[in-house]
């Protein structure tokens, strides 16, 4: 039996799997987002770490001792701890927008393009480099107190084992040299060479530590249990859904709309866009377009019209394809957009409203807008093969049909929903050298095919792209808060 831990943005889960990939049990606990000021989003690192020990303790109490625990988690943001792994401030979330002007200045100065030419990844307000640069200017003493500027899963690993380390997936962005190390060129361009000592050592494969006595006491796991860290949630979800062949891709309809495609080699040419992530497998990279327009945009809209997620299917049934003329640019994140373009000042907008527009029209328009954003991202990422879909939004059959129609292709759904935890366990098998049945662990159980509205959405996608182009011209004149 094996346990995968997935530390998300708003929920932490521990999932137990049998030797054949059967999901045996799951334990979850919510975590809070902190909003200290407009455009700023943080998390209490101590609370997040406590959530991990809590779910592990409860799950182990029911299913017993695993052979190992594998940990994945949200990417980006900045998690600052001292030499003992104790937080020196709240973690700054990947959704945070305080570094918007930093990113705008970098873009104007050519920094973004210079770094993209090194490692194929762009910068955005919630990226580790942008946040570190902001703190270096506004909170230098905080960075002085820290020993590590790490990532979520790495902080968990150090908390449970004492090991200070990261893996190639998280370190791919933003400082990678694409050869398994940190790039002096990227650090210099970003003005962060003097903070390079805060970056944890990169392990060529996933770091593996042994659970220490304090971790054993907190979790109920046996001391010495192997704790395998990484990859972080985007590559983990790809592996958990069997996305391993170049050209194949997946969409995670979650807090972010994470669109990603497997490639055989990194590409640092063309217009800077998206992220280039190591998967841990030789000759396999992810061209990732993790847009900021996921389920958070839909949740906000549902609250706005006084509805709940339970009413989504009914509302989509009340308003047909095209939402009775209402259209949406769903860029409602306070930190703007990061894929397939970067604009810290991107903002959402509704068009085509009349006094006859209904709440169902608004909800449908947002669902369609998010699906258009997915197509925009997948087109930019180079999708040519099959497409897997996961995430909380994939639980809505009606919304999945919109995605299939907008994308004009079949959608593969995994057998079990916890693909991040599943993927990090599957990846750990490679690390510890254990044989397993890949098809049994990562196969699909359902396919959603395009329906009758494909042609109508093809026209709608053209209008969507035109609206994005017009809006970007207006956003160029926006100012920071």
TrEMBL record:
Keywords: Kinase, Transferase. GO terms for molecular function: kinase activity. Residues 250-428 form the Carbohydrate kinase FGGY C-terminal domain. InterPro entries: ATPase_NBD, Carb_kinase_FGGY, FGGY_C, FGGY_Carb_Kinase, FGGY_N. Pfam families: FGGY_C, FGGY_N. Gene3D superfamilies: 3.30.420.40. Residues 1-234 form the Carbohydrate kinase FGGY N-terminal domain. PANTHER family: L-XYLULOSE_3-KETO-L-GULONATE KINASE (PTHR43095:SF3), SUGAR KINASE (PTHR43095). Belongs to the FGGY kinase family. This is FGGY family carbohydrate kinase.
């Amino acid at each position: 039996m094996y346990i995968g831990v997935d530390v998300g943005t708003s929920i932490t889960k521990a999932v137990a799997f049998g030797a054949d990939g059967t999901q045996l049990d799951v334990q979850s606990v919510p975590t809070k987002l902190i909003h200290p000021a407009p455009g700023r989003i943080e998390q209490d690192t101590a609370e997040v770490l406590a959530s991990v020990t809590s779910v592990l303790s409860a799950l182990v109490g029911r299913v017993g001792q695993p052979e190992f625990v594998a940990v994945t988690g949200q990417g980006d943001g900045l998690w600052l701890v001292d030499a003992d792994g104790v937080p020196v401030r709240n973690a700054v979330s990947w959704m945070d927008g305080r570094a918007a002007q930093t990113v705008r200045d970098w873009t104007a100065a050519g920094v973004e393009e210079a770094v993209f030419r090194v490692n194929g990844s762009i910068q955005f307000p919630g990226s580790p480099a942008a946040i570190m640069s902001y703190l270096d200017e506004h909170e230098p003493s905080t960075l002085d107190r820290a020993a590590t500027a790490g990532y979520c899963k790495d902080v968990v690993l150090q908390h449970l084992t004492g090991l200070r380390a990261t893996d190639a997936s998280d370190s791919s962005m933003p400082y990678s040299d694409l050869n398994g190390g940190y790039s002096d060129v990227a650090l210099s361009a970003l003005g962060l060479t003097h903070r390079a000592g805060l970056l944890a050592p990169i392990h060529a494969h996933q770091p593996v530590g042994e659970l220490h006595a304090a971790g054993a006491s907190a979790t109920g796991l046996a001391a010495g249990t192997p704790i395998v860290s990484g990859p972080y949630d985007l590559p983990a979800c790809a592996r958990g859904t069997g996305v391993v062949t170049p050209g194949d891709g997946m969409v995670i309809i979650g807090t972010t709309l994470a669109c990603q495609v497997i490639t055989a080699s990194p590409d640092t040419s063309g217009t800077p866009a998206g992220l280039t992530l190591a998967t841990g497998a030789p000759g396999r990279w992810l061209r990732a377009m993790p847009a900021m327009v996921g389920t958070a945009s839909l949740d906000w809209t549902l609250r706005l019209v006084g509805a709940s997620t339970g009413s989504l299917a009914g509302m989509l049934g009340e308003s047909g394809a095209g939402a009775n003329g209402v259209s949406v640019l769903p860029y409602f994140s306070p930190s703007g957009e990061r894929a397939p373009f970067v604009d810290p000042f991107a903002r959402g907008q509704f068009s085509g409203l009349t006094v006859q527009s209904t709440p169902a029209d608004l909800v449908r328009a947002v669902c369609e807008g998010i699906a258009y954003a997915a197509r925009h991202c997948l087109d930019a990422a180079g999708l040519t093969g099959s497409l897997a879909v996961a995430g909380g939004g994939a639980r809505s059959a009606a919304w999945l049909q919109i995605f299939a129609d907008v994308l004009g292709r079949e959608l593969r759904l995994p057998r079990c929903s916890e693909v991040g935890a599943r993927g990090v366990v599957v990846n750990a098998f490679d690390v510890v050298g254990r044989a397993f049945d890949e098809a049994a662990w990562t196969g699909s159980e359902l396919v959603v095919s395009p329906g009758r509205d494909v042609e109508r959405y093809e026209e709608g996608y053209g209008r969507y792209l035109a609206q994005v182009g017009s809006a970007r011209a207006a956003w160029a004149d926006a100012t920071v808060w």
